[in-house]
Amino acid sequence: MNSVSGLGSRGMENLRWEKSCCPYCGVGCGLRVGIRDGALVKIKGDPDHPANFGEICAKAAHLIPTVRPADRALYPMVRDKRGGELRRTSWPGALSYVARHFKRIIARHGSNAIGFYGSGQLTTESYYVFNKLAKGFLGTNNFDTNSRLCMSSAVSAYTLALGSDGPAACYEDIELADLFLIAGSNTAWCHPITFRRIEKRKLAARDGAQVIVVDPRRTETADLADLHLAIQPGTDVALFNAMLCVMIREGLIDEEFVASHTRGWERAREAALRWEPERAASVCGVGTRDIVQAARWFGNAKRPLSLWSMGINQSSAGTSKALAIINLHLASGKIGKPGCGPFSLTGQPNAMGGREVGGMAHLLPGYRHVANPAHRAEVARLWGVSEKQISPAPGLSAVELFEALAAGRVKAVWIICTNPAVSMPDLDLVDRALRYAELVVVQDSFHPTDTSLYADVVLPAAQWPEKEGVMTNSERRITLLPKLAEPPGEALDDWEIGALFGRMTGNSEAFAFVDSEAVFDEYKRFTAGTPLDISELTYERLRRGPVQWPYSARDGAGAARLYTDLKFNSSDGRAQFHPTDHRSPAEVPDREFPLILTTGRIRNQWHTMTRTGKAPALMKAAPEPYVELHPDDAAAAGITDGRFVEVRSRRGMFVAQARVTGEITRGACFVPFHWGRMSGAFKAINNLTHRARDPISGQAELKFCAVNVRPVTVWSAQDEVDALSGATSVAESETGSEIGWDQPQEGGEIE
Ligand SMILES: Nc1nc2c(c(=O)[nH]1)N[C@H]1C(S)=C(S)[C@@H](COP(=O)(O)OP(=O)(O)OC[C@H]3O[C@@H](n4cnc5c(=O)[nH]c(N)nc54)[C@H](O)[C@@H]3O)O[C@H]1N2
Ligand SMILES: Nc1nc2c(c(=O)[nH]1)N[C@H]1C(S)=C(S)[C@@H](COP(=O)(O)OP(=O)(O)OC[C@H]3O[C@@H](n4cnc5c(=O)[nH]c(N)nc54)[C@H](O)[C@@H]3O)O[C@H]1N2
Ligand code: SF4
Ligand SMILES: [Mo]
Asked: Where are the domains of the chain?
């Protein structure tokens, strides 16, 4: 165990402190957990952990009430028929029920009629076991995760440009950088401890550290900016191309680096030169001078560090957006050196581990690809299965899986550690998918959730800190989470559930893991000789502290940065430029739906609130969702601050109070996505969002769709009578005139 002290002051008898890692965001802060008589009583930051040096944010500080609330899932449950009750059963009872249905479905429709949908909040070990089960033993690559909604555009861009996935930079670079380009990331709220480091760096830097923030909203992150580019949503590629255009024109390109270490510059250069700053300014809705300024700062910076997250990734142009950022670094040679580089901030605590272990429908462990015959052969050998058993066809990605369920092509889905009935775009699709499926298995630590309401089988999972395993944070740092408490009822660690199922379905040897360490030791063999080599890493080493990958036992440490030898992971060691071009999002505003809806997070809630929703202190700050609207758009619609409004898209409706604020760009509105239908049918903003995807990464466009916003009309008794008697509808007689939408509205600056 990781006991760090037996602190014994008055009233603190028997209090012992154990090390762990925060189960929320990808910053991956080290925690110290105070335990007395087997119960968690205190949480503080681990001063020795290099992600946070003892600091934590409010979400972690309020973890304790989220561990044992009344709605923990305690026992396996099965519903024999749709519409029937979920009844408690044993683990063998529940898993043999699943096995029976899988067998029937596979016999009738083939292996690809089943699918798994997992999560970046699983430990690496749990990911590994389920991935092995699906891809190695059930014959389907339909194992995808919510990382598809989160990181997949960054993954595609890194792979295309640098030859493999994996952020090159590290947190220490924050203290060294002299320019921060923060794009599509509300770091202050979503990666708060990383943000504090940026803030400190900026305030402490005698040599000056400038901050550029690219975000259609004036977020708390943007408050730190020397230059805030409040672009129209979806126009980032135009902006970054224009920055590159200015850098070319002003001689700010590192020609020698480009010539020696990259390929494809000519075409990227041509593409950028088509984006004069004036042209980008009109598309992005920001000033030409600001674009030129941003380019000069970037081009002249010695150590520019680019941080990005969902405003970039969650877009039908997500891969292009991320590539355009990477191009800026390749063109200026600002990569592989201390203090600079492209650095995507991962959202979930182990989204990185998921990528490493092959937790997406096109991947195999160790950054291998299902489509690559040599990769399949290596993995098959290590799994002890025939090569033919691993299908060469990539499985269905997250949204595709739900589309296939709704269309009846996939018949069964096993959902693990994610709540798609809140977090997926276009919730009506999810509703159809889960109703039409013949079998829905939900493995969650809580019940009911919006998703488990659809379940035929509920499998109770241990959650933090009842589970053991490793997680990798944004800077490739692996931390061991020890098991610090017993799970309630009969809940099991996720990997144990997968292993039990594997053994029950006749693969006793392949799933004979005795503990999570045995899973880790099997997984790490897949990394030998790969960019993420941790084949020499052990739990024993991790108990002494976290390490970055790649790791070498000889050094006892990992690599702080990637590509320091300026050799990239491509066959010739060169990085590849990809020309990028701006294209319109999938659904642009029009007369009927004149505003852009963008969605995201708030400081004190985590995703679908199954955990943070149980911490009274966190709920207090934001008990309800809301709609941020620009004053001009609000005035045009007859909306005042605090008024209840309905937001509609072609797919659904949402109701909340308006927050009229100049902090959002004109033409767009913002709604947090944490609330699901269980909290009120019209509180779920994903009723409205669009499931268009990036063609390369498959990531959904959760940051852009067309909506209209109007005041909620209060019906009087007379309206009721009029409506029933077919008299003029309220919508025509009152709301229509009030909103004044009759004038055609231009769809922002979008082309
Ligand atoms: N408090 C809290 N923290 C979290 C989470 C949480 O649920 N709550 N979740 C974690 C996870 S999984 C993730 S993925 C991260 C996400 O972290 P972030 O990406 O920082 O969070 P979001 O609020 O989704 O979106 C970031 C910003 O993108 C902006 N944006 C929207 N459209 C565009 C655009 O077209 N271009 C640009 N440049 N910006 C745009 C939005 O205005 C928003 O401010 O947070 C992690 N941390
Ligand atoms: N509109 C809109 N939608 C979005 C986004 C957005 O910005 N806008 N962001 C997207 C992104 S980036 C993400 S990452 C997703 C997140 O979306 P989800 O993954 O759906 O969100 P969570 O609430 O984190 O879901 C985790 C589930 O796992 C359960 N759980 C917690 N710990 C454990 C455990 O140890 N084991 C098991 N088995 N279960 C556990 C929780 O109770 C919860 O039900 O949302 C996406 N959806
Ligand atoms: S910043 Fe992220 S990892 Fe750190 S304490 Fe807060 S939620 Fe946890
Ligand atoms: Mo995420």
From this structure: 4-66, 77-149+350-542, 152-344, 595-728
137 with 508: CB under 8 angstroms? no
Say how far apart CA 133 and CA 274 lie, in whole Å. 49
Which of ligand 3's atoms lies nearest the C-alpha of 349? 3
Which pair of tokens denotes residue 292? 């030129």
Strands 705-711 and 653-660: unpaired
pLDDT band at 672 (very low <50, low <70, confident <90, very high): very high
Q: Whose CA is nearest to atom 24 of ligand 2?
A: 607
Separation in Å, CA 81 to CA 284, 454, 455, 570, 625: 53, 12, 11, 52, 35
- The secondary structure of 190-203 as a DSSP string is HSHHHHHHHHHHHH
Q: Is the CB of 461 under 6 A from ligand 2?
A: yes
Ligand 3 within 6 A of 51 CB?
no
The second-level CATH assignment, the architecture, of 595-728 is Beta Barrel (2.40)
Tell me if domain 77-149+350-542 and domain 595-728 are identical in fold: no
Ligand with smallest separation from the Cα of 27: 3
Average pLDDT for 455-478: 98
Confidence tier at 11 by pLDDT (50, 70, 90): low
Among 466, 409, 420, 471, smallest CA distance to 442 is for 420
What topology is assigned to 4-66 in CATH? Phosphorylase Kinase; domain 1 (3.30.200)
How many angstroms separate the alpha carbon of residue 121 from the centre of ligand 4?
Answer: 10
How many CA atoms, within 13 angstroms, populate the side-chain half-sphere of residue 140?
25
685 lines ligand 2 (CB under 6 A): yes
Distance 214 CA to ligand 2 centre (A): 26
What token pair was written down for 50? Answer: 């290099």
For residue 56, the ligand 3 atom closest to its alpha carbon is 5
Domain 77-149+350-542 has CATH 3.40.50.740: yes
pLDDT for res 733: 35
Assign 748 a pLDDT band (cuts: 50, 70, 90): very low
User: How much is the pTM?
Assistant: 0.94
Residue-wise pLDDT tens digits, 512-553: 999 999 999 999 999 999 999 999 999 999 999 999 999 999
% of the chain with per-residue pLDDT over 70 = 93
Q: Burial-class residue 662 by CB neighbours within 10 Å (0-12, 13-18, 19+).
A: exposed
The C-alpha atoms of residue 705 and residue 595 are separated, in whole angstroms, by: 8
CA of 607 to the centre of ligand 2 (A): 5
For strand 457-460 and strand 469-472, is the pairing parallel, antiparallel, or unpaired? unpaired
Looking at 205-235, list the stretches that DSSP marks H as alpha helix, in order from N- to C-terminal side: none
CA distance 446 to 262: 49
Q: How far apart (Å, rounded) are the C-alpha atoms in residues 457 and 305?
A: 46
Assigned token pair, 691? 């499931």
CA 410 to centroid of ligand 3, rounded, Å: 37
Point out the ligand nearest to the CA of residue 414: 2
- The position carrying tokens 């959730």 is 449
Residue in 19, 21, 27 to alter for ligand 3 test, most ligand atoms within 8 A of Cβ: 27
What are the CB-based long-range contacts (under 8 Å, 24+) for 79-84? Answer: 79/455, 79/456, 79/457, 82/456
The fold adopted by the segment(s) 152-344 is Dimethylsulfoxide Reductase; domain 2 (3.40.228)
**Is the per-residue pLDDT at 263 higher than 80?**
yes
Residue 192 Cβ contacting ligand 3 at under 6 Å: yes
| pLDDT tens for each residue of 44-72 | 999 999 999 999 999 999 999 999 999 99
Name the burial class of residue 742, with classes exposed (0-12), middle (13-18) and buried (19+) by CB atoms within 10 angstroms of its CB. Answer: exposed
- Which ligand is in closest contact with the Cα of 608? 2
